[in-house]
Structures are given as C-alpha cells and as structure tokens.
Amino acid sequence: MIHLIVPLVAAFTPTLLYTLMLWWLDRYEKEPLHLLLVTFVWGAVPALVIAIFAELAVDDLAQYVFGPGAEATIVAPIVEEVLKALVLIALFVFVRREFNGVLDGIIYGALVGFGFAMSENILYFIAYSDQIVGVWLLRSVIFGFNHAFFTSIVGIALGLVRYEKRRWAGYVAVPLALWLAIMLHALHNSSAQIGFLSMLLAWVVNGGGILIVLATIVLSQRHELQWLNAELDEEVAIGVITLAQFERILSPTLRSRAELNTLLTRGWKDFRELRHFNHLLTELAFVKYQLHQGDRFCCVDDVLALRHQIQVMQPALEEHGRHTVLS
Questions:
Q1: Which entry of 8, 62, 149, 280 is 20 to 30 Å from 159 by CA?
Q2: In 75-145, which ranges are continuous DSSP H helix?
C-alpha cells in the first residue's frame, strides 16, 4: 500500500500548491469552479488515457518511419498537446461568456496541464519508486510547470482572439500556438534523451517562456483592473452600487478582508451572499466590456439582468451590517 500512497502524495502535493498559486493569480474575476474542475479532470484522466493508447498504437510505425525515440520526441508532443488543447477550444466555443481574455486562457491552459502532469507523474513515480526522490525533483520541481506552460500558449492565443472580429485570425493564431507548444514539448523530450547540456538548454528555454507567461499574467491583470474601473464607474454614477463597493471590488485585498470579516462576524450564509454579490459586480463589468467590444454572445439584456440582481441584493446586504459589508 505504501508503494501507492507515496507516489500519490508526491504527485498531488506540488500540484495542489501550483493550482492554489494559479487560483490566487486570477484576482478579479474567478472562473467558475465547475469549469476549473472539468478542465483539470480532462487533463488528469481522459487526455492522459487517450494519449497513452494513441501513443502505443502508433509507436511501432513512428519508430519505423522516424527511427528510435520517435514516440517521445514526435508522437507524444503532438498527441498530448492536441488532446490538452481540445478542452480549451471546447471552453472557448461552448462557454465563451466565461472566457474573457488572455488571463482566462492561461488559467484554463495551465490547469489542464497541471492535471495531465499530476497523473503522468503518478505513473512515473510508481515505475521508478526506487529513485522517486530524484524523479520527483526532476518532474515536479525542475520541470514541474512544463505541461502547464505548453498548454497555456494555446490559451493565450485563444484569449488574444477573444474579441477579434476577423475570424480568420483565430484560424491562424491557434494552430500557430499549438505548433509552438508541440515544438517546445518536443525540445524538452529530446533533451532528456541527448544529455545534461541539452536538458539544461530546454530548462532555460522553458523557464524563459514561463517568465513571459508570468509577465503576460501581470499585464492581463492590469487590463482587467482597467475594465472594472471603466465599466463600474458608470454604475456608481447611476446609483446601482456605492462608491465603497466600487473601491472594494477594485482591490482584491479589501474584498478579501471584507469577505473574511463577514465570515467571522456574520457567519457562512452572509459570507456566501457577499461573495456572490462581489461576483455579480465583476460579472457586470466584464459583460459590459464584452458588449462594448461588439461580442455577439452578449447583449443589453444581460447587463440589465445583472443590474437587477445587484439591486435586489442591496437591501439585504445593508441589513446584515453596513459597517461590515460596505466599509
């Protein structure tokens, strides 16, 4: 039993830490938990299982055509990156309202990558249980962000074309992003077969890419803050929300402090109501932004419905304690 528990803990613990960090980075408009769960589970189970069978099915042919090592350097990068990207494309197409831009693309892309890496690592840790410390350091620490990084490239491309009116841009950007993810994945896998210097080069390249993604996250956060500021300023002017609520929504620190204070002083029910209210405010800002960008999936009725929900909740929030909720 211990031979199974150790690999599970070794794979799950860093994944949990990385996922929590990802959750923290999505500061203004958290993605729905059910979509995050679906994304993670797709990477952790179906994508990995399908990839294993697909790679086994074409292994002999690939080695015959391209030579030894083709499964790792050619087949695996193509199969795995395509399968991971599928869930991002599905989210983009079917729940587009929740795909607001580049930051959302990174969040979903990294999450499916973390799920895939976790399950893959479990298999490796079981197979190399006698070397688990070294394998863990290599796969979970040194290269722990690789799968998340590769798939986030496709997420960034989808985010960039989110409000693009020229449809052909998406048909160009997404395949190019997928090709880049496959190439970087192939570089990483081939470096593991060539030697230490090649592996170091792959680490430097991927590490640089991860830094670029982090910089992109910071820029995306600033853009989202600008959206909130611009779109909710009007709501203050017309009396839908108060100035205090406006200022709180612009500051994750103030919002978290108010929610925690409500939880400690008012209880779970009021805490959930406040969190839902804050979510409605950010949702209103993002829907208004989508409307102003000419998004065909958004309309004026959506804005009016969100305003109505916010106004309905206002009296209850005031009754719960103005000093706690609106300060």
A1: 280
A2: 76-94, 102-127, 132-136
Task: Judge if pTM exceeds 0.85.
Answer: yes
In tens, the pLDDT along 209-253 reads 889 999 999 999 999 999 999 999 999 999 999 999 999 999 989
Task: Give the residue extent of every domain in the chain.
Answer: 2-219, 238-325
Supply the pLDDT for residue 14: 94
Q: Ramachandran region of residue 67, left (φ > 0), alpha (ψ -120 to 50) or beta?
A: left
Q: Which pLDDT does position 27 carry in this prediction?
A: 85
Supply the pLDDT for residue 2: 64
User: For residue 297, what pLDDT is reported?
Assistant: 67
The residue ranges of the chain whose pLDDT is under 50 are: 323-327
| CB-CB neighbours of 46 under 10 Å | 14
Give dist(CA 222, CA 305) in Å, integer: 27
| Residue carrying the six token digits 């779970």 | 268
Both ends of the chain: CA-CA distance in Å?
52
> Which residues, at least 6 apart from 78, have a Cβ–Cβ distance to it below 8 Å?
182
DSSP state of 128: T
Amino acid at 213: V
Q: How far apart are CA 213 and CA 133, in angstroms?
A: 28
Q: Which two tokens mark 112?
A: 């499916």
Q: Which tens digit of pLDDT belongs to each residue from 130-172?
A: 888 999 998 999 889 999 999 999 999 999 998 887 888 888 9
What per-residue confidence (pLDDT) applies to 326? 45
Give the CA distances from residue 49 to residues 39, 63, 234, 301, in Å, rounded to whole numbers and listed in that order: 15, 21, 49, 42
Q: Write b or e for each residue in 218-250: b if 16 or more Cβ atoms lie within 10 A of its Cβ, otherwise e.
A: eebbeebbebbeebbeebeeeebbbeebbebbb
Q: b/e map of 116-151 (b: 16 or more CB within 10 Å)?
A: bbbbbbbebbeebeeebeebbebbbeebbbbbbbbb
